[in-house]
Design brief:
By secondary structure, the protein is α/β, with parallel strands linked by helices. Helix content is 47%, strand content 13%. It is built from 19 helices and 16 strands. The strands form five sheets. The protein has a five-stranded parallel β-sheet with strand order 2-1-3-4-5, sandwiched between helices. Helix 18 packs across helix 19 (439-448). The longest helix has 25 residues, at 107-131. The radius of gyration is 29 Å and the shape is elongated. The termini are far apart.
Amino acid sequence: MIRVLVVDDDGNLRRMLRAVLEAEGYDVEDAEGGEAGLTACEETEPDVVLLDLVMPPGPDGLAVLERIMARQDDIGVIMMSGKATLDDAVRATKLGAFQFLEKPLTPERVLTTVAAAAALARERAENRALRAGQPDGEEIVGATAVMQELRAQIARVAPIPSRVLITGESGTGKELVARAIHRQSPRGGRPMVSLNCAAIPRDLLESEMFGHERGAFSGAVARRRGKFELADGSTLFLDEVGDLHLDAQSKLLRVLETGTIERVGGERERAVDVRVLAASNKDLADEVRGGRFREDLFFRLNVFPIRVPPLRDRLDDLPLLVEHLSRVVAARCTRRVRSVGPDAIARLKEHSWPGNVRELANVIERLTIAGVDRRVTVREVDGVLGLAGVPVKEPLSGQSDELSLTDALAAYERQLITRVLQASDGNVAAAARRLRTDRANLYRRMRRLGMGP
């Protein structure tokens, strides 16, 4: 819903404009005088401001206009006056005013001008968001069969408004998939809005999603729009939706069912047109069975499921990913692109990649920053992957050839853990990092192998 702020010292005019605009579906606030107008502008974040030129005794309309434009230049400000001069109009235009309306006002003229100003203000805001750029590595890279199927799924679901549940391990690129769906959708001309459900404190999550009114809770010093309002007419990406607590799940379900939201501390529901894309690294079906996720919400989100494969399932894409990430990282860090030869690629393919593409991007960045030569060496790869200082010997040297497969694997695992522990001066946490696992898992393996702490 488009928000309009009316700033005028004439109470009758404010009431008339509010009635006319609200009848057309606008969300209207008003303020008496320049200082009150500036405060209201900061609190309500309007799309359009109808601003009187002369408002004694406070700052006049031109001074208010200048301060509004200095703070946020994508608001459509319409100046109103019955005593404006040509100089006033010229100055207002230079300061960023959209239009000058002469009093007495007519409803038709007001509505036409407000609609045009709102359209321009939204276009400015969207262009600014798009100019801000997308995250590095926006391209979905890969030629394996699983990646071709992933692109086909994106192409099938993007043009229709269905909800999509994107699953996959951390670091596989779930947000990348969401952005691709959004870009290829009819809503792609507007910025996608994102919310990481796991990164917001529980007591603030509802405010982040739906917004709040001034004074709704301690610290709510100004009215604030939530993610659903910001995504009105566009796409909202809910990352790590499986981490929502049950109360928030209930409120999210209601929004998906009704298409309306209510700000925290508010008394009025607002209709929103939002396409929801959700992502989780958890198995939400398991979460439902465990009573940690609402079954009805799961069905609402899981209209079209997409699974993003882990890197270990598409290692043949690794050369393409390395080449792509090397260019992206080099451009961002203003370094030259380093080539990664077949020997280094082979060593990278031996890694288990628990952090998936995000981990690979970090590895490429470290190799780009730390390297001196144009070509990445196997030794550098070993160093970055935490294998430096771990002697590479023929496994199970001196062991009997009569070992069973189970015994041979256990012996090799014991030998590898011992070597890494020695290289880590007995520090289990450091050894776990070198082996790309967590400390608890390493302790479990050591106990199973009969190894002491």
